[in-house]
From TrEMBL:
Organism (species): Sediminibacillus albus
Domain TRAM per the UniProt entry, residue ranges: 457-520
GN (gene name): miaB
Protein name: tRNA-2-methylthio-N(6)-dimethylallyladenosine synthase
Keyword check for Electron transport: no
Residues holding [4Fe-4S] cluster 1: 92, 128, 162
Keyword Membrane: no
Family, per entry: Belongs to the methylthiotransferase family. MiaB subfamily.
Binding, [4Fe-4S] cluster 2: 238, 242, 245
Protein origin, superkingdom: Bacteria
Keywords: 4Fe-4S, Cytoplasm, Iron, Iron-sulfur, Metal-binding, S-adenosyl-L-methionine, Transferase, tRNA processing
């Protein structure tokens, strides 16, 4: 911060909340007239650096400090009294969970949550950068927010999450959408109270995006979305640098939480009556690698968590390269560790996997699947697949289809490759036309649908344990929940069954869900 900025901040600190409206209106008028390049030069005052493979790869295993003493600043603790917030979340479960933390921070500041944008005093877009269409959706939403801002200049609009970590996105917002009040990155979430203060009392758009990851802050408040299933971060970041993927840049280097902190959080969830936890990380199998003082991996962690009295434990996402024997041995013991494994393969061709820098071959992946199947004969395997990676040949795509059949994936998230600025693959020439890529995606989806339907069919007549989550989204007369193997089940039952694990007899199988009848009236089973 330079002297001028410091002065401005002091003025901000001393501002009277009663002046906020006039300040904001003034701000909006001024922004309408400002030259956008000037805006970028003047106000883009961050330590931001665009994704840089060489630099990012050289990042070191510096010690990550862990803080247990976080507090919302006193002068912001009541700022949200009688005010409301709305957070729109895009992308993965990690983002969903970050939203829970931001909701916690805002709640600690006195705000209440709302689903209605018209009555919100703060609207945050928690964004995803993984593919271009995810970004397009967000820019569409930003466009809609302009009308809202014009009608209500008091509303504070913020863009956060993975897109904020990209220089091109920040520049585009500064240039084309100057009515946005703040942009902050994935490493700046805990700074939300301070950033909000700057946005409310200051005149400029607030931009804070650290390209270098920060410390781990353990005691950030959270308002969880539900009371049945909870997410628990076990690690942050990714050091794998697959050549197509933006995540190692937007989420920073791998940092593991201490086992005792994770275990305590899972215990707390169990004590609060949660029925399921999902342990989260971009690459959970790398858990513990950066904990230099202990020899401790995901297998060890899962082993300890299996002893906690919580009925269901899942984890996502796995990387085949780091999936070790210890983990398989622990998962094979069963109990509350569910035998549904999401194991992204990305491609069935060893050559494509090599250029993707996945660091395993088709054969190694199949060996791993064999190992898992031997230890857990009933395990359900699901995956992620990218089609149309630069220069992927027809033969290489056929190898993906044959791998899907050989493994027998019961479902898969499938994507057309989307070039992400700053990643190595985005710089490569690509001779595969989009039409061909779309055709491949269709063929792949057809195969996955067929395999999913076949897997579902096997459940007809069987009785399964369902964790009841609530009314079905499509039909409020019907309740919906998931089996241990993550199959969606719809069935008629009294609402008293919500939040319980009940037995359901499957009467009809569809491609992506099962219909059934509850065996006993809301009798909980474990
Ligand atoms: N294009 C298409 N799909 C991608 N994924 C990650 N990056 C890209 C990209 N650039 C997919 C991978 C990953 C999932 C979360 O998203 O399959 O496993
Ligand atoms: Fe991206 Fe996953 Fe590869 Fe990490 S392991 S770079 S998050 S695809």
């Amino acid at each position: 911060m330079n002297e001028q900025q410091r002065k401005e901040m002091n003025q901000i600190n001393q501002a009277n909340p009663a002046d906020i409206k006039s300040d904001q209106e003034e701000n909006l008028d001024r922004l309408k007239n400002i030259d956008s390049d000037e805006l970028i030069g003047k106000y883009f005052q961050t330590t931001y650096e665009p994704p840089n493979l060489k630099k990012a790869k050289k990042r070191r295993r510096e010690d990550v400090k862990i803080h247990y003493d976080y507090q919302v600043p006193e002068d912001m603790a009541n700022i949200g009294k009688d005010k409301k917030f709305l957070i729109r979340t895009y992308g993965c479960q990690m983002n969903e969970h970050d939203t829970e933390v931001m909701a916690g921070l805002l709640t600690d500041m006195g705000y209440q949550s709302t689903d209605n944008a018209q009555e919100a005093d703060i609207i945050l877009l928690n964004t995803c950068a993984i593919r271009e269409n995810a970004e397009n959706k967000v820019f569409g939403e930003i466009g809609h927010l302009k009308t809202l801002k014009t009608e209500n200049p008091d509303v504070i609009l913020g863009v956060c999450g993975c897109m904020s970590q990209e220089e091109s996105v920040v520049n585009r917002i500064l240039k084309k959408h100057p009515f946005i009040d703040m942009i902050f990155g994935t490493h700046n979430i805990h700074r939300l109270p301070q950033l909000l203060k700057e946005a409310m009392f200051g005149k400029e758009m607030v931009v804070e995006v650290w390209s270098k990851e920060g410390d781990i802050i353990e005691n950030l408040p959270k308002v969880r979305k539900g009371k049945i299933k909870g997410w628990v971060n076990i690690m942050y970041g990714c050091d794998k640098f697959c050549t197509y993927c933006i995540v190692p840049y937007t989420r920073g280097k791998e940092r593991s939480r201490r086992p005792e902190d994770i275990i305590q959080e899972v215990r707390q969830l169990a004590a609060q009556g949660y029925k399921e936890v999902t342990l989260l990380g971009q690459n959970v199998n790398a858990y513990g690698k950066d904990l230099t003082d202990i020899e401790y991996g995901l297998g060890d962690l899962m082993d300890e968590i299996s002893k906690i009295d919580i009925p269901r434990v899942r984890f996502t996402t796995s990387h085949p390269r780091d999936f070790d024997d210890r983990l398989i041995e622990v998962l094979a013991k069963g109990g509350n560790l569910l035998d549904h494994i999401h194991l992204p393969v990305q491609s069935g061709s060893s050559e494509v996997l090599r250029v993707m820098a996945r660091r395993y071959t088709r054969e190694r992946y199949l060996e791993l699947v064999d190992k898992i199947r031997t230890a857990m004969p009933n395990a359900t395997l699901t995956t992620d697949i990218i089609v149309g990676f630069p220069n992927e040949t027809d033969e290489q795509f056929e190898e993906t289809l044959s791998l899907v059949e050989e493994v027998g994936f019961e479902s898969a998230y499938t994507f057309i490759y989307s070039p992400r600025e700053g990643t190595p693959a985005a710089r490569w020439e690509d001779n595969i036309p989009m039409e061909v890529k779309k055709e491949r995606l269709q063929r792949l989806n057809k195969l996955i649908n067929k395999q999913s339907a076949e897997a579902m069919k096997k459940y007809e007549g069987q009785t399964v344990k369902v964790l009841v989550e609530g009314e079905s989204k499509k039909n409020p007369d019907v309740l919906a929940g998931y089996t241990e193997r993550n199959k969606l089940v719809n069935f008629k039952a009294p609402t008293s069954a919500i939040g319980k694990i009940v037995e359901v007899k499957i009467t009809n199988a569809k491609t992506w869900s099962l219909d059934g009848e509850m065996v006993e009236d809301a009798v909980e089973v474990k």
